[in-house]
Design a protein that fits this description.
Two copies of one chain form a homodimer. By secondary structure, the first copy, chain A, is mainly alpha-helical. Chain A is built from six helices and two strands; from the N terminus they run H-H-H-H-E-E-H-H. Chain A has a single domain, classed as Orthogonal Bundle (Arc Repressor Mutant, subunit A). Chain A has a two-stranded antiparallel sheet with strand order 1-2. The longest helix of chain A is centred in the C-terminal third of the chain and has 25 residues. Chain A is globular, with a radius of gyration of 20 Å. The interface between A and B is large, with 71 and 73 residues. Chain B binds a DNA duplex (30 and 30 nucleotides) through helix 4.
Chain lengths: 160, 160
DNA sequence: CTAGATTATTACACATGTTAATTATCACTC
DNA sequence: GAGTGATAATTAACATGTGTAATAATCTAG
């Protein structure tokens, strides 16, 4: 099945907004986050703080700041500040790596784990709402395509 | 074609990161924006400033602040500040609506139009790179799915 | 042991998110 | 037509984030 005629670039030489990938990703994300934000606000978490907690929870082992920033799509300085905040709330713990004292190993505290596991099921309800509206299989496909796109664009193989 | 087995929620009751829609949208957007950002930086534009310019350019007529904010996925106060900045750079012009003096009609200045039309073709090259990696038809499908998702989630029909 | 590289934090300048307050104007009613 | 409530936009205030650069601490290699 063809996707139909592709709109030609406008006379002005700029892609129409509908054809803007970053715009489409942003508005889709905004519409999804609107459903999740109240829940995070209830727990006094910003999106970025939540991304850090979630990333730590997903990791099987403690993470250093660099990899953590990369995985959570944040800059290292931002992560540093976020960690300072989360540490003051006793949601994470830092351990200095034995073999290399520069490195900090970050992991969730028991309290941090509890928080993530408290929020998890709450967010699951929202996912069910999303799947009810958009379709389960369809969402799975979309997630795979997004992951594939990310992989292909991350690859630094810029043209020679 | 089935999408295969869906990972069950983890024992901890939280969706794996791969299954997080906001996360997937964010990382995809990040990987795309990484390709565009240098171009915007060259023109001293932030992503948000660019979204405003692009939105104005896409509109057939001047926009008021409210609709502009909505279309660009920004909050009105942010748009106010961005407009102050863009106005000081002579990229936009404000006109007070004749029939309602509260309303401001924002449009691109000639200089603003030129800038958008200068950047447009530059960004087109990046799109071609994206399509080369991801596929043209595939990108079209993704854009349609994102648009559909946005529409379905924007709808305030929360369950009764 | 020292020079250079690496990890993380700090510093700084700036932009944005977010809520609330403020200003100006409009629309409507008495 | 004066007063009241609604509306559009801005401003304020504060927290937080981004992005670059500088710094501190530590490691690694010669």
């Amino acid at each position: 099945m063809s996707s139909g005629p592709t709109p030609a670039p406008t006379a002005s030489g700029i892609r129409s907004i509908d054809q803007s990938l970053p715009m489409a990703l942003l508005t889709a994300r905004e519409s999804a986050m609107r459903l999740f934000r109240p829940m995070l606000a209830d727990h006094d978490l910003t999106e970025q703080q939540w991304r850090v907690l979630r990333t730590l929870h997903a990791s099987s082992e403690p993470l250093e700041v660099g990899p953590l920033a990369e995985l959570a799509s944040l800059l290292a300085p931002s992560v540093s500040r976020i960690l300072a905040n989360l540490e003051s709330r006793h949601l994470i713990v830092r351990t200095v790596a034995a073999h290399d004292q520069r490195r900090a190993a970050i992991s969730l505290s028991a309290q941090g784990s509890s928080l993530v596991e408290l929020i998890g099921p709450e967010s699951e309800a929202t996912y069910e709402e999303i799947e009810r509206r958009f379709g389960h299989e369809r969402l799975q496909l979309l997630l795979r395509e997004l992951s594939e796109l990310t992989m292909l664009l991350a690859n630094p193989q810029t043209e020679p």
